[in-house]
Structure formats: structure tokens, C-alpha cells
Amino acid sequence: MFKKIACVVLTISLLFSCQQDPFNSTKITASKAEVIRLSKVSEMPKKSLSAQAEMKQLSFIATVQYMNLEGGFFGLVSKEGKHWLPINLKKEFQQHGAVIKVKGNAIKGMMTIQQWGIPFSITDIELIKPGRAGGGNNLL
Fold first, then answer.
1. DSSP secondary structure string for all residues of 40-90
2. Residue 117 near residue 76, CB atoms below 8 Å
3. What are the structural domains, with CATH classification, of the chain?
4. pLDDT category of residue 52 using cuts at 50, 70 and 90
5. Collapsing DSSP states into helix, strand and coil, what is residue 125?
6. Distance from C-alpha of 74 to C-alpha of 81, rounded to nearest angstrom
7. N or C end of the chain: smaller count of CB under 10 Å?
């Protein structure tokens, strides 16, 4: 009996603590919003977008692979077995099994929905051996 009463009291106290007072809501005028917005911007660290890309340009030979994950995407597997996720692979190179030579930059700190490989920005690409064109069900 004591446990039931304690549970009811605890539940009611939690419900009351979660309620907001509709008459004591915070109203922000346009001038206050401007001050808040300016102060938030000035507190943000100043980083250029290019700071995310690794400055050292990489060059390697890789095989293009179509991955049937997260809606499907093309990835690169280097001869060393490292996985690279190209963010700008042109349509004409989206061929499953193609062998290509790429130059570009690894991108650090970029999150992708694929969660596969290291994001890679291609600056130069050369087709060494063609593969099967297209994507989706006709590949795998």
C-alpha cells in the first residue's frame, strides 16, 4: 500500500514539474532576437570550409564498387584495401568493377549516411579499365 501511494505521489510531482506556465512564457522582441543572434555568431569558432579537406593531395588506383546499402552508392576500394567514399564521382565513372586512377583530398570530420569509407573529394580521375555501367538492381 505504501509503495502505491509513493508511486502516485512521485508521478504527480514529476508531472507538475514538467508543466510550463502559459502566462509566464518568454517573449522576444525583434531587437532582443537580433542581439541574441549576433552574440551567438560571435561566439562560434571561425573555421574555413576548406579546413576540413586534408591539404595533402592523395593519388591511388582503386576499383569502383556499387554498394547496395542506404539506397545504394558507389565506393572506391584501393589496392591496399582502404575504403574511400567519393563525394563527387562523375556519372561516366559510376561503373561497378571499373579500375580508376584518382587524385584528390580526404575530408576529415564529415558525416555521411553511408557510414562507409573515408569521404574523398576527387580533383582528377582517369579510367584504366571499364566496368559495368549503372547502379541498382542490374549490378548486384
1. HHHHS----GGGGB-SSPEEEEEEEEEE-STT-EEEEEETT--EEEESS--
2. yes
3. 53-133 (2.40.50.500)
4. low
5. strand
6. 15
7. N
Is residue 103 a contact partner of residue 122, using CB atoms and an 8 Å limit? Answer: yes
Give dist(CA 71, CA 83) in Å, integer: 18
Cell numbers given for 32 = 532582443
Which phi and psi angles does 97 have, rounded to 5°? 90, -5
Q: Is the pLDDT of residue 63 over 80?
A: yes
Are 102 and 67 in contact by the 8 Å Cβ rule? The answer is: no
Contact 72, 136 (CB under 8 A): yes
pTM: 0.58
